[in-house]
Amino acid sequence: MKAKVTFLLSILLSGVLLAQHASTQQPAPAKMPSTPAPVFVPLPKDIQCSLQGLSFRSVVGAHGQMENTNGTVDSLNCWIAAKGEGQKTDIPLASNDITHEIIATKDFGKLRMAPQNSVSSAGFSLSIRADRMKALRAFLLSHDTAEVDAQVAARHPTEPIYVAIPDWADCEFSGMYYQSVVGSSSGMNGSLTGMICSINGYGSLPKRDVALLSTSITDGVLKTKDFGFLRVEGSNSLMSAGVSVFIRQDMVHSFHEFLFQGYSNGEANILAASQYGDLVRVNALLSAHTDVNATDKDGDTPLALASLYGNLDVAKALVTAKADVNVQNFNGGTALTWVSGTYGNPILVRFLVASGADVNLRTKKGYTALILASSWGKDDIVRILLRANANVNAKDNEGDTALIDASANGYVSIVRALIAAKADVNIVRNDGATALSVSLKNEHTDVADLLKKAGAHE
């Protein structure tokens, strides 16, 4: 299969287009120390896990990948699968919520749940922070037999951990030619003439050549001068010529520094560092008087990006530096609306509200933070916003209210909270529908009963 490839690689769940990424910016002045964000790696084959009581919703993205996964899980069991199925061990959860693909555990930090890239399958994969992998394996072995311990040790000597190139970089391959068999586990073979990468997302940024020791790809391996071996995998799709690239986990920080080296655009740097969660770099840029309210190509600020990606410490630093918490992007969204709906994050919502976020600002489609939280089933966030005096009867451009959206989706606890906050149960949507009519249409009889008791009309 020949492919002249000069394409941007974004790390997709299916491994279709690969990402060779960089944080999001341009030239950072001198060398500034940075603290890379935690790197998630897939659980190895010798560690198997099962989720009990799993319920989740995902959106199928433009390329078939599953996105925006939110839901709940009752419990998590894992075991060492060295010989048959090992002894299952309960992994205590810090929360039963799955928020933006993240499952929080008490002892091993955050796990990332990636649903299988198939509308017809409920499969999923789990990833863990690379620095917690050893502790998890030790924990499971301590609950299993010495025989399993010995078998695992023999089968899994210390070997480098490869992770997908971070999604804060864009990379392009030039002159690429490769052959691979769809569905085959064997590595691809081919060649290329060059590879360039840059920090992604914020205009035209300088690109840097990645020095290659060889222009050949052999059994899925590409040799570089500064970052060791890269693993290259062809997309498992007859419809795509995309590739996925993986780098050694211990080289991610070096790759990050390589892409920042020599950059001088402070505004692009602070946007990238805020998204990436690089508190050290953000503080250095703020000390250099970089505009704390710089905006990217979508109109988002460093605070919006830090909030969207769950970087609370960075968000605090930006607010301390007088970041405007109410800047609206080109779609009217704010840091608060980002974290109230799809990417629900109660901790950041609480912080932003306490920092002066206007809970009643609307997007261009008329969505308020409360409407978004109610439509996505974010109980905790709904209560935080109601306590902050969010307009409980605000309508979006189609006439939907928080109550109508929650009723349509059958979110009983949210409907109860909105009614308690004096939501108008008889508000009519632009098309004539009401909270009661949509709840009955969708067969949410428990919601309908609540609405009727609150005075909703048939």
How would you characterize this protein structure?
With 458 residues, the chain is an alpha+beta fold. It folds into three domains: 1-36 and 158-264, no CATH class; 45-155, no CATH class; 266-453, Alpha Horseshoe (Serine Threonine Protein Phosphatase 5, Tetratricopeptide repeat). The chain has helices at 133-142, 146-155, 252-260, 266-276, 279-287, 302-308, 312-320, 335-340, 346-354, 369-375, 379-387, 402-409, 412-420, 435-441, 445-453; strands at residues 40-42, 47-52, 55-60, 66-72, 75-80, 89-90, 93-99, 102-105, 110-115, 124-129, 162-164, 169-174, 177-179, 189-191, 194-199, 208-209, 212-218, 221-224, 229-234, 243-248. The longest helix is centred in the middle third of the chain and has 11 residues, at 266-276.
CATH superfamily of the largest domain: Ankyrin repeat-containing domain
Count helical runs: 15
What percent of residues are in strands? Answer: 15-25%
Q: Number of DSSP strands? A: 20
**Shape field:** globular
N-to-C span: 62 Å
Per CATH, the architecture of the largest domain is Alpha Horseshoe
Percent helix, as a range, is 25-40%
| Largest pleated sheet | 7 strands, antiparallel
State the secondary-structure class. Answer: alpha+beta
Per CATH, what is the topology of the largest domain?
Serine Threonine Protein Phosphatase 5, Tetratricopeptide repeat
Taking Cα atoms only, what radius of gyration do you get, to the nearest Å?
Answer: 24 Å
What strand line-up does the widest sheet have? 1-10-9-8-7-4-3
- CATH classification, class level of the largest domain: Mainly Alpha
Low-confidence spans: 1-35, 117-122, 145-153, 182-186, 236-241
- Return the average pLDDT rounded to an integer: 77
Oligomerization state of this entry? single chain
Number of domains: 3
